[in-house]
Amino acid sequence: MSAIFKKEIHQFFSSITGYVAIILFLLANGLFLFVFPDTSLLDGGYANLDGLFEMAPLIFLLLIPAITMRSLADEYKSGTMELLSTKPVTWWQIVWGKYWACITIVVIALIPTAVYYLAMAQLAATNNALDHGSIIGSYLGLFLLGSTFTAIGLWASSLTGNAVVAFLVAIFTCYIFYNGFDALSKVPVFSGGADYYLQMAGIRYHYNSISRGVVDSRDVIYFLSVTGLMLYLTKISLERKIWQG
Q: Where is this protein found (predicted)?
């Protein structure tokens, strides 16, 4: 599994695409948080990072599919998946190796955002102006969100040998999980009880819950369950692809 992990990291950073994806993520966050007047934290009047945690999930919808789209699709395209399946590794080791490599890249993209926290801490009127508990909870929520999006992106990449198709499928699926259930709950026919359960079925409800600074085990279990489900579907997809090939 470690060999697959190292290969995936090396492959991502061996081309300019990996660097561009991370730079664009940081650039987009920087522009929205400190330059554009409608979303600038500097114009809010008080110290917080709410804008980052509201904007980052939407940027993740593009960043993470860009990270995962080639993980398995390129293996199919180059024919190395058949070769990999003959090696003394299990399907789960292949999936986990790819998954943890992509998660590592997401974390690498998140680490520089700590500069935003340090900047707001310096600009705050008092040392206690920032809600540190809420910020820690929001970062945890963002990590869990990224983990789930990564599992979805990996599943999308396991479906096809075309990286662009995998990218589009991942964006659509991530969006449905993040915002689709919440939007569906607002349809009048579901009002009166079903709307609440529809919201709970979506990622946004649980992400917003953790972002308030209160880590509820139910929210963590939700993220872990969806991630586990998508990784299991990825494994099934890999097996089916090889059998059919």
A: Cell membrane
